[in-house]
Specification:
367 residues, alpha/beta, Rossmann fold, 5-stranded parallel beta sheet, 14 helices, disordered N terminus
């Protein structure tokens, strides 16, 4: 059975599951009414993107989808903590961070539909392409952060920082641990953001680690902190502080966002085969959207009209995503050879010609 945070390690929390406001001596926020409302809007729209994409996959319109339901607060909170100059390195589940970085959700669907290899400019969005190989993005992020350090783009509040996202399962990968070693050795401006959703596919975190994941940072020589990953305000506050520390030359930080994956690992997974329904029901009481909604009502920052307007925005976004997905043109199969290398090689040209000849043997040329 999953151990709930109250029964284990203390964690940074600014909103209780009931929406009561808490304060923390090291991490806190003082936002405007509009900013609090904007957080809620982000959470609702990100969840709707996820729900629509999951439905499209079930209807055969996407090859696969990695749901994020339950992890919206960790992603939106950390994503909104990023400054325009900061660079994010995601896994394949950071749809909420992509939303915060201005990546059109329809572009994400194109990747899972097989219509593109990404579709956005990483430099423009300051958001790297999705990484399928578990944990490898942490090394990419570390290398990028080393470049920032070599360029002298750290040392003050206007410096640049990097954030690398990964899951609790990836924390067992060698790449992640090597990234910790290099980041600590060179004191690079990076934040490692681990979304501990309790399950590395079907393996519980308790099997992977005998200590809380954030404590692993001690062994590498940099600080670690555990935050309530279902609390968007705490996720924002902790990430903002860690990024500011990185950009001012204080080196890396490991953040463990303690959350829960409400659905499947991907749409090819059946979580009912390995976890208890009682765990899921317990975590539903900690839902990040309901928590933020309760806070807004308790503080008299929102009314039914505002909630309805957000739902209308979510409906419109879902309709646009569905329409755009269904109308998305299929790529030319031969286009897979275009961007392998900057210049075409003899071997690639031979392979292209061979595939072209094969496709030409079908009615319509295989297109």
């Amino acid at each position: 059975m999953t151990v709930l945070p109250e029964a284990s390690t203390p964690l940074v929390q600014l909103l209780t599951p009931e929406g009561e406001r808490l304060h923390h001596p090291d991490y806190d926020v003082d936002l405007s009414d509009d900013e609090y409302r904007a957080f809620y809007r982000d959470l609702v729209l990100v969840r709707r993107i996820d729900a629509e994409a999951t439905a499209l996959q079930r209807q055969g319109e996407l090859g696969l989808w990695a749901p994020l339901a339950g992890q919206e607060a960790a992603q939106v909170g950390s994503g909104r903590a990023l400054r325009p100059q900061d660079f994010a390195f995601p896994t394949y589940r950071e749809h909420g961070v992509a939303w915060c970085k201005g990546v059109d959700p329809l572009t994400l669907l194109g990747l899972f539909r097989g219509a593109s290899n990404g579709g956005w400019d990483p430099q423009e969005k300051r958001f790297q392409l999705y990484t399928i190989v578990i944990g490898s993005q942490t090394l990419h992020a570390t290398g990028y952060a080393m470049g920032i350090l070599k360029d002298g783009a750290v040392g003050d509040a206007d410096g640049e920082a990097v954030i690398a996202y990964f899951g609790d399962g990836a924390s067992s990968q060698g790449d992640v641990n090597e990234a910790f070693v290099w980041s600590a050795a060179y004191h690079v401006p990076i934040v490692f953001f681990c979304q501990n959703n309790q399950w590395g596919i079907s393996t519980p975190t308790s099997t992977q680690s005998r200590i809380p994941l954030y404590k692993r940072a001690e062994g590498f020589g940099f600080p670690g902190v555990r935050v309530d990953g279902n609390d968007v305000l705490a996720s924002y506050a902790v990430t903002r502080a860690a990024l500011d520390a990185a950009r001012t030359g204080q080196g890396p930080t490991l953040i463990e966002a303690f959350t829960y994956r409400m659905g499947a690992h991907t749409t090819s997974d059946d979580p009912t085969r390995y976890r208890l329904s009682s765990d899921l029901e317990a975590w539903k009481l900690k839902d990040p959207l309901e928590r933020m909604k309760s806070f807004l009502f308790k503080q008299q920052l929102a009314d039914a009209t505002f909630i309805e307007s957000v739902e209308a925005d979510a409906d419109a976004l879902a309709a646009r995503i569905r329409k755009g997905c269904l109308e998305m043109p299929d790529p030319d199969p031969l286009s897979m050879f275009d961007d392998v290398y900057a210049e075409q090689t003899v071997l690639l040209e031979e392979q292209r010609e061979e595939l072209g000849t094969y496709l030409a043997g079908f009615v319509g040329g295989g297109h």
